[in-house]
Amino acid sequence: MMQNNLDPIDLEILRLLQKDATLNNKELSFKLNKSIATVHDRVRKLKEQGYIKRVVAILDRKKIDRNLLAFSHVFLKAHTAETLVEFETEVAKFSEVMECFQMTGAYDFILRIATSDMDAYHLFLRNKLATLPNVSTVQSFFVLSETKSDTAYPL
Amino acid sequence: MMQNNLDPIDLEILRLLQKDATLNNKELSFKLNKSIATVHDRVRKLKEQGYIKRVVAILDRKKIDRNLLAFSHVFLKAHTAETLVEFETEVAKFSEVMECFQMTGAYDFILRIATSDMDAYHLFLRNKLATLPNVSTVQSFFVLSETKSDTAYPL
DNA sequence: TTTATTTCCGGAAATTTTTCAGAAAAACAA
DNA sequence: TTGTTTTTCTGAAAAATTTCCGGAAATAAA
Predict the structure, then answer these.
(1) Residues 13-72 of chain A: which lie with beta carbon within 7 Å of strand D?
(2) Conformational region of residue A58, where left means phi above 0, alpha means psi within -120 to 50, and beta covers everything else
(3) Average model confidence (pLDDT) for chain A?
(4) Of A98, A142, A147, the CB nearest to B92
(5) How sure is the predictor about B151, in pLDDT bands with cuts at 50, 70 and 90?
(6) DSSP characters for B102-129?
(7) Which pLDDT score is estimated for B148?
(8) Which residue, A46, A86, A112, B2, has fewest beta-carbon neighbours within 10 Å?
């Protein structure tokens, strides 16, 4: 596997592990009709080569008191490299911020914010996000329902 | 553990497994200063009780040719229960749609779309999303850079 | 304090991961 | 085609881990 291409076996392994990374080599080998050692080797290489970045446990957000999910659109006052980097650095430190993307178009950043409730969001907005230098405007949108939520890319 | 509260040991286990679910019981037991059997028991219960919904492999999106990430804001023409459910059902079938949220406020849904490039997004928009009944307007925003991307909630 | 309940632990058995040498398959050159 | 090299695959053995269990320790209740 010198070249960077994934064969059908690799793709199937990635497909399966994206859905359920608790599958062990024996189970994978059964599903793939390959030997355990082969599967073991393939998985090791997929990790080594960085196709699999990490394996994580996904928690039930509502069970750990993160009932409110919001998207915050952030506009900055200035757009120098420095301003952007500073905002990115500071916003990443807030525990409520799950994701931060710099965007094209109408606003500068989209944040995905997880808090326990609206009060907590309000406090986050007032005491954390709005206090960052160069933040001009924040538009907040709240999730009514999660219709689809997938970490697995189709392969 | 009859009541639904997590003690500091459970919280620490969840913290660790959210970051790296490849940690085995021996490693966890070392970090927690507990026996392997105790850790094993705790993790089993956390899964049983649904705190850990699933364990997944996170892939490097760019290595599997999903270079473009977009957020699409969707406005519907009508808002009957039927219309909403139909949209949710149909949009979830598209492989480009990683997430779909129904939202409060200015637009009805936010979609997170992963495609290989702008051409693929264009095709998705024209041939899939825009063809759904009752879709009024779609605003597309593209990710310039991922500043923070976390699946782990702070505990 | 005594009793009941829960949590925790060490050790053993069962299972899985990891390693390895050789076989099979594929790629390549003559 | 044939022989050579390289890669991939396999089964088996060794190493490591998970899983189970009885009883000890800690905690809560009587």
Answers:
(1) 34-38, 41-42
(2) beta
(3) 94
(4) A147
(5) very high
(6) EESSS-SEEEEEEESSHHHHHHHHHHTG
(7) 97
(8) B2
pTM: 0.91
Interface test with B, best of A45, A59, A74 (most B CBs within 10 A): A59
How far, in Å, CA of B38 to CA of B40, rounded?
A: 5
- Which residues touch B114 (CB under 8 Å, ≥6 apart)? A153, B61, B66, B68, B69, B70, B96, B98
HSE (CB half, 13 Å, CA atoms) of A30?
Answer: 4
Q: B105, A141: Cβ pair inside 8 Å?
A: yes
**Three-state DSSP state, A150:** coil
Distance between CA atoms of B125 and B140, rounded to whole angstroms?
A: 9
pLDDT tens sequence across B40-81: 999 999 999 999 999 999 999 999 999 999 999 999 999 999
Give the side-chain half-sphere CA count within 13 A for A126. Answer: 6
- Note the pLDDT tens digit of each residue in A26-47: 999 999 999 999 999 999 999 9
Could you tell me the two tokens for B142?
């593209």
Q: Which residues of B124-142 are buried (b: 16+ CB within 10 A; e: fewer)?
A: bbeebbeebebbeebebbb
